[in-house]
Amino acid sequence: MFEKLFKLKQNNTTVKTEIAAGITTFVTMAYILAVNPNVLSAAGMDRTAVLLATCLASFLGTVIMALSANLPFALSAGMGLNAYFAYTVCGAMGYSWQTALLAVFIEGIIFIILSLTKVRESIFDCIPLSLKRAVSIGIGLFIAFIGLQNAGLCVDSATLVSLVSFRDNFSTSGICALLAVIGLMITAALYIKNVKGSILIGVFGTWLLGIICQLTGIYVPDGESYFSLLPTFAMTDFSKLGETFGQCFKVDFGETGIFNFIIVIFSFLFVDLFDTLGTIIGVSTKANMLDKDGKLPGIKPALMSDAVATSAGAVLGTSTTTTFVESSAGVAAGGRTGLTALTTAVLFLLSMFLAPIFTAIPSFATAPALIIVGFLMFSSITELKMDESNFTTAIPAYLCIIAMPLFYSISEGIAIGIISYVILNLVCGKSKQINPLMYVLAVVFVLKYIFL
User: Fold this and answer.
1) Of 27, 40, 305, 409, which one is least surrounded by beta carbons within 10 A?
2) CA angle, 189 then 190 then 191, to 5°
């Protein structure tokens, strides 16, 4: 059945590999089940309701991705988009979370229309191969940076970022950072030795070391920022979903300025569009899924899946649902078909029942996986032509790469890459290399920086 549905032999993979890859993707994404309720609770939403909505939206979107596109990409509530939802729209701008959910719902409907009319697919196809490769490399640096932060290795300082002090607070932040380093070495060694499921083994191995440290008193939870690493077996209160389900349709427009509301919609729309495109470009490039023209077969159903999941997620009660960069962890573990995504989707559904166990996996345990996957994606840099005759494509690629981690945004990297690509090729007499749609994108990005 799996062979007929997912074409495993054609994609040179097996059921065992795909399931292991799906588990790997889920484990590296599981943090969203803890983070998203915390973020959206700042907007006044119930944590348990958000957890349930996140699980259901993730399941729905990822199943659609698996069955319609046959791609190993998983979806969940987008990081950055949830922060914009809670801290900007509901915080700084003062909108209710119901209004913010309506904006997300409308954004998803617009995306469905754009996907049906091939607008999003055309945007994907018009981006030159050099920038697509740059996006893959940039995402590699970006998720490695996230991994370093999750590990507690990279911390705020007078120089914006610096290495953590292992000796300070050793029983909490110090030991967690050290365990992440040990886990990174374990994961890297296993990967180099071609051990199957090396990334997944590294995650659980690092978690197990943490549990041993807690049991021996080396790691001491403080109950504020550092919690017990031991999983619990509590059940979830499913009735809480009723507190957010359908609330996006209960908005009083008399209290909502229509112009500002439209701006909110397009802000969600803009960030989601290019975060999703960037993630799909980066992960599919690394997995060698692009054809000779740099196009991704099945891109239309892939884009449709996150559009549908976004609107459905808003109805359920969560912020924008989008394709996750962490899908690259599953790809690195050998995932090549929708069976990987289906496995991840099932785990999201199961996590509704056993969420405390899944979310007990600490961020320092998943950090080594993100850092290793970042390296694997960064390795595509050897495919970029950096000689003088290719500076008009190489420099935009370089700017795109460094912008993603430094500005903490996939979409900002794409924006800077596209704008610089158009300008440099135009002023250097290479306008024939520019796809007409690239001019439109460059102008839109410039307008975005002016008005949004």
Assistant:
1) 409
2) 90
Residue keyed to tokens 């300082």: 157
To 10 degrees, the CA torsion angle through 51, 55, 61, 64?
-160
Q: Please, which residues have CB within 8 angstroms of residue 209's CB and are 6 or more apart in sequence?
A: 179, 182, 183
Structure tokens at 191: 């990967």
- Cβ neighbors of 248 (< 8 A, separation 6 or more) are 98, 101, 102, 104, 105, 314, 315, 317
Query: Burial level of 112, CB count in 10 A (0-12/13-18/19+)?
Result: middle
Q: How far apart are CA 342 and CA 118, in angstroms?
A: 25
pTM for this predicted structure:
0.76
In whole angstroms, what separates CA 147 from the centre of its chain? 12
Classify burial at 17, counting beta carbons within 10 Å of its beta carbon; exposed 0-12, middle 13-18, buried 19 or more.
buried
Check pLDDT > 70 for residue 282. yes
Residue 335 CA to residue 288 CA, distance in Å, equals 12
**Paired tokens of 133:** 């490769």
Whether residue 53 contacts residue 317, with contact meaning beta carbons closer than 8 Å, is answered with: yes
Return d(Cα 310, Cα 313) in angstroms, integer: 5
Largest separation between any pair of C-alpha atoms in the chain: 67
Torsion of CA 413, 419, 420, 421, to 10 degrees: 100
Joined tokens for residue 3:
């062979």
SS (H, E, C) 241-300: HHHCCCHHHCCCHHHCCHHHHHHHHHHHHHHHHHHHHHHHHHHHHHCCCCCCCCCCCCHH
pLDDT tens-digit profile of 38-54?
889 889 998 889 999 99
Whose CA is closest to 361, among 210, 198, 196, 171? 210
CA distance 371 to 150: 10
| Alpha-carbon span 389 to 67, nearest angstrom | 43
Q: Are 301 and 114 in contact (CB under 8 A)?
A: no
266 CB-near residues (< 8 Å, 6+ apart): 452
pLDDT of residue 60: 96
CA distance 159 to 274: 29
Q: How far is CA 354 from CA 50, 232, 241, in A?
A: 15, 9, 16
Residues 6+ apart with CB under 8 A from 113: none
Q: For 330-354, what is the mean pLDDT?
A: 91
Report how far apart, in Å, the C-alpha atoms of 333 and of each of 172, 355, 370 are: 30, 24, 12
